[in-house]
Amino acid sequence: MAGPSATPSARAAAGTALQAVEGLVVKGRAPKTGYDRDEFGSAWADTDRNGCGTRDDVLAEQLSDVARDADGCKVLQGVLDPDPYTGTRIAFVRGRSKVDIDHLVALSDAWQKGAQQWSAGKRRAFANDSLNLVAADSSTNRRKGEGDTATWLPPNTSYRCTYVAGQVSVKRKYGLWVTSAERDAMREVLASCPEQKLPVGGEPTEAPAR
To answer: Where are the domains of the chain?
Structure first.
């Protein structure tokens, strides 16, 4: 039985995001040297080979009232309601979109916490894994930049537990480490929702060459 000095994570139930935090490796952030978006493959590749790019797959999955063009892939319009980062309703129109597809764990953050040591196929998989992708307000996403849990959280407080649980899941799946400040921030957020389940699923961790 856990003693009185045990962390909330150590006392958390199995299968929760809070419990999973304790399994993440803690290390310092590595230099960003060598990082380039191209290190993760071409943007929104069709890694699942369903004939559609990842961006359109995510839009079709996470937006409502979706309309596509004749090829059956390109999402022309839809509604993000609510936007998870702001809690607002956003209408999506292709070419005039205020919707980005965000990587919960930013590519540059991943690069500094283990991804620079990966194979090209694993980096492609990471960049296109649905477990790591969320449709969100573009301006809010760009303010996030390469932030981790210690440096950025969604302004929509009701989404923070889901958001942090997603980051924990992605880092666990891909074997990325966290900084001590990041781990502590994850604990703090998830302590307010100790029953939050750890998300699972997504695609394989090695993607085919394109």
So the answer is: 9-190
